[in-house]
Amino acid sequence: MLAKRVRRDVSIIIPALNEESTIQQTLQQLTVLNPPPHEVIVIDAGSEDETVDRVKTSFELFPQSIKTKIIFSSKRGRSIQMNQGADIATGDILCFLHADTWLPNDAIAIIQKTLTDPKVAAGGFISLMVGANSTRWGISLHNYLKTYYAPLIFKPLSFWKGLRLLFGDQVIFCRRNDFWEFGGFDHKLPIMEDGDLCCKLARKGRIRLVNRIVQSSDRRVARWGAWKATAIYIYIGVLWGIGVDANYLKQFYQDIR
């Protein structure tokens, strides 16, 4: 008797708000993923620029084998938007992608392979921050290291059990059933919703940082400057690690488009 095939369809979920400068490139890159994702869902929270038009134009170029959908959120906030996308997703695996982050062509295969291990509850990639004229090697290295040192310092017991703190530009992925078992993203959190999700999913299994790179826009660092950006990242991380409310921390992390 043939073994029953285990489905591992991947739904890519992208929250968007005024992302006209990046969303088209992100979506175009998804058309060449091999194997392709099961579906791509964009959740727009009231963009006031050309984001929606560019999403629709990009979706027209997708092969018919990839389901596409754009939905509209009446409330802003990545947690809210990503939960709405996850709620209508039909794939067995959820992959949360920022509108300014670009995946390697074999990302779907990497995601599927990582989650074949039942001891792994979630995973993410190494994020390389890039701009038009430079690569932010220093900040990219720090972001890589904090995946390990943050849980080691603030949650050492969980660290030794497999907790790693992944953030949005690392493209977090997990099984849909596990995601909803822990209630998805906390919609009350304006930032650090990704770290919070990792802490919850770590109760289910290890959080895995795969040895592959995704590229993310350096627009925030370009606006702040490398030293200020690093200081803000560390400041927010430390305060969150000791239990400071993320709603208070949001004031230090303004939206930049």
From TrEMBL:
Transmembrane regions: 225-243
Subcellular location: Cell membrane
Main subcellular localisation: membrane
One GO MF term attached to the UniProt entry: glycosyltransferase activity
InterPro entries: Glyco_trans_2-like, Nucleotide-diphossugar_trans, Trfase_2_rSAM/seldom_assoc
Taxonomy, superkingdom: Bacteria
Domain annotation Glycosyltransferase 2-like: ranges: 11-148
GO CC, one annotated term: plasma membrane
Keyword Transcription regulation belongs to the record: no
Family, per entry: Belongs to the glycosyltransferase 2 family. CrtQ subfamily.
Its job: Catalyzes the glycosylation of 4,4'-diaponeurosporenoate, i.e. the esterification of glucose at the C1'' position with the carboxyl group of 4,4'-diaponeurosporenic acid, to form glycosyl-4,4'-diaponeurosporenoate. This is a step in the biosynthesis of staphyloxanthin, an orange pigment present in most staphylococci strains.
Protein name according to UniProt: 4,4'-diaponeurosporenoate glycosyltransferase
Organism: Mastigocoleus testarum BC008
Taxonomic lineage from the root: Bacteria, Bacillati, Cyanobacteriota, Cyanophyceae, Nostocales
